Amino acid sequence: MEGLQYGYVEAVIAAAGCKSWAPKFDDGIDLQIDHAHAAHTLNEEQEARIQVQLKATTIPPSGGYIRAEMSVQRFRRFALPNPSLPHLVVIMHVPAAQQHWVYADERSLSLFHRAYWVNLAGQPEPLGASDRVAIKAPLTQVFDDVALCQIMMRVGSGDRP
Asked: Which of 42, 43, 86, 112 is deepest in the core (most CB within 10 A)?
């Protein structure tokens, strides 16, 4: 499931004209995404940068959201109100049966499901949270190349993702 999600996300990153790299050690960040553009005014390099945690789940979306879990420790890091580097969580629904992940024909290879993003910055820690926290991303926040370009333009001007 993780490999399928990485493939999806890397295709989105390439289509958005961004670069990505994975940290050598897993500290809760699966990917860092960079985007260079003359409109980025946040720094002299004219680059925008975000860090991403990937979550794949076999639980289908419902009620307008897709849900996943993360550790309370990681949630606290992602929920900082003003992080020096913005963080996103990208959640993807992946069917439990591997034969339902992709469909190939003579013209294309299609993924059956999409990924969705959420920015947890400033979110309060849920009451009674033990070692795991349920998080959710709205189905209106599809993680695709258009959304990633918009996110990077906001981040590049000093705004939130």
From this structure: 86
